[in-house]
Structure prediction request, 230 residues.
Amino acid sequence: MTAPLVDLDFARPLGQGRYAALFVWLHLPNRQVDALLPPAFSRAACPFSPGGSHPLVLSIGRQSGVGPAHWPGKGWAYNEAILTLPWLHHQGQLCTWPMRLWLDRRRPVWLGRPYGFPKQRSPLQVSQGQAEVPGVFSVQHQPIHGEARTRLRRAGVLAGLGQPLVANASGHPVRSWMDWQLQDAELTSAAVQLKSALPWLPNLVLGEDSPQGLAWFMTHSWTLTAPERL
Prediction:
């Protein structure tokens, strides 16, 4: 049984924005993922990951035009970094868990609370060729040749992005649906060098044919439904 957290039709978009970011899809050992998961979450089988591993998605970039759906105003703009674990089970349903989010403005942190998103303030830096969440991770990046959409489809990235979001930082599990509008997204393959201060997030270099994962730049509009308590 579910209940909306706001008096709205939560099947319709509530929020909107546009995200221009670097994305990194990499594989962690299953035992590390199991140690990160909160209660009631478990790994689902991901047919696109090498044996004994599970995908994690890192993104860092610039949000713009963030506000209520169909809002005529300019909306908020801010830098945001996100770590998510797709291909999970929660109450028997396939989902993605937004595990950590960093933003450089206070108001969007507050707005994430009804969704259960664990957002926190950070003076993260996003510039050409480099991005950083101080004390957490930094990444150097550059575009490379190659057809990005085909690579993402083969790696299972597009299937992972289509899963509902389930988060629980508010004390209760909350589900929402994001429409990534991938059909209109601008995609460019990338090469990256990731340096991490997190013990479970590896330092690595990804190129065009790296077995550890892949990286890409993506600019896309998005909408998000109203949160739904599970």
